[in-house]
Amino acid sequence: MNASRRAYPLANLFANPGWWLALAVVLILPLTLNSGTLATEVLVYALAVLGCNLLLGYTGLLSFGQGIFFGMGSYTLGILMTRAGLGLPLSVLLALVAGALTAALVGWFAIRQRGTYFVMLTLAFAQMFYFLAYSLPDWTGGDNGLLNIPRPPLSLFGMTLMPLDSPWRFYTLVAVCFLVVFWLLQRVTASVFGRTLLAIRENETRASAVGYDTRRFKLAAFALSGAVTGLAGAFHALMTGIAPLSNIEYHTSEMILVMTVIGGTGNLFASVLGAAFYVLMSDWLSTLWPRWLLLLGLLLIGVSLFMHKGLWGLLQRGWTALRRGRAAAAAPEGAPEGER
Amino acid sequence: MNVYLLQVVNGVGVGMLYFLLAVGLSIIFGLLRFVNFAHGAFYLLGAYFCYQAVAWGLNFWLALLLVPLVVALLAWLAERTLLRRVYDRPHEFHILITVGVALVLQEVVILIWGPLGDNVATPAALQGVVMWGGFIYPKYRLFVIAFTAVFALLLWWLLEGTRLGSAVRAGSESAEMVSLLGINVFRVFGLVFALGAGTAALAGALAAPIRGVDPFMGLEALGVAFVIVVVGGMGSFSGALVGGLLIGIVQSVMSTLWPEGARLMIYVAMAAVLLLRPHGLLGRG
What we know:
The complex is a heterodimer. Chain A has 15 helices and 2 strands. Chain A is mainly α. Chain A has one domain: ABC transporter involved in vitamin B12 uptake, BtuC. Chain A has a two-stranded antiparallel sheet. In chain A, helix 3 (about 35-60) packs antiparallel against helix 11, helix 9 (about 190-200) packs across helix 10 (about 205-210) and helix 12 packs across helix 13 (about 270-290). Chain B has a single domain (about 1-275), classed as ABC transporter involved in vitamin B12 uptake, BtuC. In chain B, helix 3 (about 60-80) packs antiparallel against helix 8 and helix 6 (about 165-175) packs across helix 8. In chain B, a hairpin with a 2-residue loop joins strand 1 (about 130) and strand 2. Chain B has a two-stranded antiparallel sheet. By secondary structure, chain B is an all-alpha fold. Chain B is built from 11 helices and 2 strands. Chains A and B meet through helix 6, helix 12 and helix 14 of A and helix 4, helix 9 and helix 11 of B.
C-alpha cells in the first residue's frame, strides 16, 4: 500500500481524479479543435492505449500485438455491418467480443513466456495476423481493406436515439463510451483483481508463491485489454468508413505502445494524455514535414533517456514542485513539509 | 518433384540469409538481455549502403567487405552514446529507444534515397545460371549459400575458439561474474553489439541484388528475425542456424503451394514449434 502511495502521490490527492480529468479532456476537445474527426481520433486511440496500459502498466506485460485486437475490432465491425447487415450497437458489441477472444487466444500462447521472449512472441503474432488478413482477401478485402462501412443513426430495439451523420455527433457517442470504459477500468484496477495484477507486475514469482494462479490473471488481463482495444478498432472503422489493412499492421501496434509509454504507465489518465499528445502532434507535424517520423524517433530516444515516467510523470513532478514552492512561501522559516 | 527440390535449395539460400540476419539479434539478446528493435534498420542500412556503393561504381566485393564494417562502426557509436544508458532500465525502455533509433534510420534512408525502392545489379561475375543436367540454378544464389556458409564457420570459430567468444559465452551465463573476473564487460557489450549489427548489414548487402532495396525492408526483416530467434531459441548460434534454415525452407516451399499465404506459414510454423517446444528448438528452458 505504502509503495503504491509513494508511486502516485497525485492520484491520492483527491480520491481519484482520473475520471474527472478524462471528462475534462472530453469537454475541452470540442472547444479547442475544429475537426470532430480529429477529436474522435484522440478518444479512439485513448481507448486503445488504455487497453495497452492495462497490460503494461498494471500487469507488467509489454504487448507488441495490440494492433491485432485493434484490427480485429475494425474487421469484425466492417464485416458485420457490410455483409451481415447487423445494426450498429450489436456490431460494436461483437467487435469488442472478437477483440477479447483474439486477445485470449494470443495471450494463451504468449504468456507461456516471460520478459523479452514474451515481447518477441507478441510481435511475431502481430505479423502473423497481418499476413492472415492479407491472405484472406475474401473476408478482409486484402490490400484495399473493407470499404463503405456505413454509419447509420444509433438505434436500439427499433427506436432511433441519435443520428451519427456529422463528425461531432459521432464524437458524442464515442465520448460517452470512452467515459464509461474509463470508469469501468478505474473500478477494475482498484479492485482486488487489479491489485493482484499489480502484484504480478511487481513480482510474479512471489504472487504465484502466495497462491495466485498468475496465468489465469494474465489471461484475464489480456482478454480485457483486447476487448477495450477491439472497441477502439470498431470505432476507428466507423469513424473512417473503412477497415484498412493498416489497422492490423505492425505500425498500429507500435503506435499504441509508443502512445502508452509517452503518456506514462500505471495510471489510466496518463494513457489519455499519451494518446492526445501523439494524435495531435502527428496531425500537426505531418502537415509541416512528411518525414515527421524522424522527429518522433528522436522524441522516443529522448523519452527513454530522460523521461522515464512519461508526460504524466512530468506533470506529477511539476505539481510536486509547485506544492513545495507554495508550502515554502507559506512557512518560510518552518520545518520542511513532509511528503504525507 | 523437381520443383520442390528447387524450392528446397532456394529455401536453403533464403534460410542462410535469414540466419545471418537473426544470429546477431540472438547473440545480442543472449549477452545483453537486450531486445534490439533497431536490428532491422541495420539490415536496411547494409542494403542501401551496398546499393549506393554499386551506384558509385565501387566493386561489389569491396562493398561486401566495407558495408558491414561501416554499419558496425555506426552501431558501436549508437551503443556507446545511447543504448548503454538504458541497460539498467526495464525492457520497455530498451524497446522504446531502439524503436526510436530504427525510426530515425528509416526516415534518414527515405530522406536520402527517396521512398521508392530500386534494384541492385548482380555483380557481373555471378550473372547467369549454373546447369547440372536438369538442375538449373542462378549463380548468385549459389554464391550466397557458399559465402554465408563460410561466414557462419568463421563466426562459429569467433564465438567458440577465441577469448572474445569465451567472454561472450560466459557473459551470457552471468555478466556479473565475468566482470568480477576482470573482463571489461562493457567493452565486450559494445563489440558484440557492433558484431551483431555488422552481420545484419552483411545480410542486407547480400540480399540487395536478390530482392532490391526499399525503405521498409528493415521492418519486414525484423519480424522474420524475431520469428527465427523464437523458433531456434534465444541466444543460441545453432538455434539461429536451424531456425533460419527451417523458416527459409518453409517459406520457399509454401510459395509454390500457396503463394499468398507463404509469409503467413512462417508464423504458423512458429506457433507450431512453440506448442511443442516453448523455449524454441535449441533453447534451454
